[in-house]
Amino acid sequence: MSNTMQKMKAVTIPEFGPAEVLREAAVNIPEPGPGQVAIDVAYAGANFAEILYRQGVVDVPLPFVPGIEISGHVRAVGAEVAGLTVGQPVAALTIVDSGGYAEVAVTAADLVVPLDERSLSLATAAALPSNSTTAFLVLDRVARIEPGESVLVHAAAGGVGSQLGQAARLLGAGRVVGTVGSPEKIATATAFGYDEVILRDQLADAGEFDIVVDMVGGPMRRAGLDRLAPMGRMVVMGNASGAEDVGISANELWFSNKTVSGFNLAAFSAAYPADAGTALRRAVAAATNGDLRIQVETLPLHQVIEAHRRIESGSTTGKLVLEVTPA
After folding, report:
1. Is pLDDT above 80 for 327?
2. Region 242-251: what's the mean pLDDT?
3. Cα separation of 141 and 282, whole Å?
4. Mean pLDDT, range 134-138, rounded to an integer
5. The dihedral of CA 76, 296, 173, 224: what is its sign?
6. What is the pLDDT of residue 296?
7. CA–CA separation, 98 vs 66, rounded Å?
8. What is the number of other CB atoms lying within 10 angstroms of the CB of residue 136?
9. pLDDT at 103 over 90
10. Residue 151 CA to chain centroid, in angstroms?
11. 43 to each of 105, 126, 285, how far by Cα in Å?
12. For residue 63, cis peptide bond before it (omega within 30 degrees of 0)
């Protein structure tokens, strides 16, 4: 009997608005199509991207099940899927169609990576697909980092910031500096591979950098561009400050020999799923080997509103992960 009419528990966005609009609901269990995998979700990462969905910044159909990354066990595989078996523990990006805040999620097989649960817990694995994959792609694929280059990362204590510093080290960076918004976050960020962590208002004295990664926006975007060395590359990958867009003059880039690029993991994963999967496997291997440190705090799924409030306020360090199915 088909399970399309069977129901599962999920957290949905029934309307756009503050964290309080999130609702638990019973929705249909999805089935995998060709090239897809269905996963029984154990944990789902909580991310700023899901706040953008909830706020209506990203146009999604309502009601919508957010959740861009998960860990769990393979439930079923679609046609033309090889190398994955039912019951296998996995980490997965669900960012293309979302759906991770649910008991079952479906995604492309290219975006699913097997795990060794003996050395990497499912809770930790759920924190890898978005932030850690992004860190490797941004530095290697977009910024094209070279050995010895200097790197500046804004929001260094956050989920993706905590991974960028470490990924820069693994990719051979020289000087790696992070910025944070409050003194309380300096010690946390320092533990994630940074040579130095400074407050944002100290950036003018930080020198020049070959690579700047900005997910904050507003004045920090302008300040980061000012800190780029000739032939430097800035990668824009967020606007956590909620500030108005920052105009960047093409003539300024021309005269100063600087480059500004954008990176969006959802768009990249949709266009290049195999490449995104390769980066995820790289992240899983680094975490399994102990080369990538993940700071995880777990909350039960029914506390999803609290998780969104904390991420939105900028008070989090490391990564919040939602326990979807209790162990």
Report:
1. no
2. 90
3. 13
4. 98
5. positive
6. 93
7. 5
8. 22
9. yes
10. 19
11. 11, 6, 19
12. yes
The amino acid that residue 28 corresponds to is N
Instruction: Please report, in angstroms and rounded to a whole number, the separation of the first and last CA atoms in the chain.
Output: 27
Nearest 5°: phi and psi at 170?
-65, -25
CA distances 46 to 3, 84, 196, Å, are 27, 25, 27
Contacts of 81 (CB under 8 A, 6+ apart): 32, 35, 36, 37, 109
For residues 190 and 293, what is the distance between their CA atoms, to the nearest angstrom?
Answer: 12
Q: What is the pLDDT of residue 1?
A: 42
Using the predicted structure, report yes or no on whether residue 73 has a pLDDT greater than 70. yes
172 torsion bin: left (phi>0), alpha (psi -120 to 50), beta (else) = left
- Alpha-carbon Rg for the chain, nearest whole angstrom, is 19
Q: What tokens does 224 get?
A: 């980061």
For the residues of 209-267, what is the DSSP string, one character each? EEEEEESS-THHHHHHHHTEEEEEEEEE---TT-PPPPP--HHHHHHHT-EEEE--HHH
Residue type, 134: T
Q: What is the pLDDT of residues 26-44, one digit of tens each?
A: 999 999 999 999 999 999 9
Neighbours of 50 (CB within 10 A): 29
What pTM was computed for the model? 0.93
Share of the chain above pLDDT 70, in %: 98
Query: By mean pLDDT, which of 40-54, 256-270, 311-325 is the weakest?
Result: 311-325
Pairwise CA distance, residues 29 & 104, whole Å:
7
Q: How large is the average pLDDT for residues 150-156?
A: 96
Q: State residue 132 phi and psi, 5-degree precision.
A: -70, -40
Please tell me the distance from the alpha carbon of residue 196 to that of residue 175, in angstroms, as a whole number: 9
pLDDT tens digit sequence for 183-194 = 999 998 999 989
